[in-house]
Every structure is written in C-alpha cells, then in structure tokens.
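My current task is to audit a protein record that another person submitted. Thanks in advance; the entry in question is below:
***
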Amino acid sequence: MIRVLLVDDQPLIRSGFRVLLDLEDDIEVVAEAGDGEEGLALVREHRPDVALVDVQMPGVDGIETTRRIAADPGLSGVHVVILTNYGLDRYVYNALRAGAAGFLVKDVVPEDFLHAVRVAARGDALLAPSITRRLIDRYVTEPLHTDAGAGLEELTGREREAVALVAKGLSNDQIAARMTISSMTAKTHVNRAMAKLRARDRAQLVVLAYECGLVTPRGS
C-alpha cells in the first residue's frame, strides 16, 4: 500500500486529489495539511511514502518543506513531489535542488497523476527526458553549489556512464540494456553514484550531474 500525504493551502485542490487517490486499491491518503509547518509535523508523524507538496504556501513554503524533509535522516523514505500551477519555473528547480523527487502541474490528467504517485513511491524520478532538457537548458548556466560534484572523483567509469544515462531519463532496465548489464547491476551503479555524490534520489542526481559538468546539455 502506497501511503500519501497531501500538503496544499487550497482545500479544493486537496479534496480533488484525495478523491482520485481514494479510488485506488493500492494507495491510501494518510493525512492532509494546509501549510508547510503542519505538513512537516504530519510527515514526521505518519512517514508517508509520498508527500505531495504545493510549491507556494504561506509561511513555510514547499521548497523549505522539501529541504527540511530531505535534511532529516529519519525521513529518508519520504519522496516529495512538488505541485505547481506554473509548470517549469524557478520554484520547481529550487525544489529539485532541495531534494524533491519531481514535480507535477496541477492540471495534470488523472491517469498521469496516479502514475506519478506510483513512480515516486518506487523511488524513481519524475523527470522525463524532455523535461530534463528544458530544465537544464534554462538553468544550467546558474552558479554551482559550492559542494556540487563533491565525490565526483570517486565515481568509477561505469558509475559515470550510469549517471549520464539517468540524466537522459532512462530507467534502470533501459540503462541495463544500454550498458549490457543486468538491471540489478545497473541499479547498484546508480545507487553507489547517488551515495558518492550525496544525492537524495534520482531527480537530485540528474541536477548534480549537470551542475558538476558530468553531463552537458548538448549530450542530453
């Protein structure tokens, strides 16, 4: 059972998403919150698999909520998906940097919304190749984090190759096929790269891969 927490200051949005989620046999909404502060408290209480968090809220916004969740070792199993009205914007990029697993525009069709929840619960990034290219094309020229690329020199050649394929939006199975290895080995390469680069999940691994120059927009 996938356990979901809804965090949005608009009750109508929360109720609409809840109706969709409650119809699914494999998904359970464990709680709702109207702001980031309440959302953080409920995340710590319920430890959901997925937290759907509005990017713009009064008080503690979605980016800060994401940052605090990502910084808490006890919440490492919580995958944050940012909800936005605006598509790809600075808020979304900053949320990915803060540790979000991906993002959804609120007018997403129900089938894609439910698919995204399941993808996030598995720990995969909600970044299709086309979204990755738009993301990087728009923001790759921004100054890097001071710690961007820390651990890059520790990556093996195969781990670097796996990270480059993750940045192109490939799944572990697709990476395995491209590298002619098993899916388990592909997953191992990706997980070890995430640990060495201190990336919380695949979405943050994609951002770091571009920020540290391991992958370039031309290569995407």
